[in-house]
Amino acid sequence: MTSANTRSLPSNRYFSPLPAQRELASELHQTIVDLPLVCPHGHVDPRLFADPDYNFGSPTELLLIPDHYVFRMLYSQGISLESLGIPRTDGGQTETDHRRIWQTFSEHFYLFQGTPTGIWLADELNSVFGINEKISARNAQAIYDHIDQQLQAPEFNPRQLFHQFNIEVLCTTDSAIDTLEHHRAIQESDWQGRILPTFRPDTVLNLKTSGWKNNISALSEVSGIEVVDYRTFVQALEQRRTFFKSMGATATDHGAYTAYTEMLNSVEADAIFQRALQGVVTDDDATRFTGHMLMEMARMSTEDGLVMQLHIGSFRNHNTALFDQFGADAGADIPIATDFTRDLRALLNAYGNDSRFALILFCLDETAYARELAPLAGHYPAVKLGPPWWFHDSINGMRRFFDQVMETAGIYNTAGFNDDTRAYPSIPIRHDVWRRASADWVAGLQLSGLIDEEDARMIVRALAYDLAKQSYRL
Question: The CATH number of the domain where 113 resides is what?
Answer without folding.
Answer: 1.10.2020.10
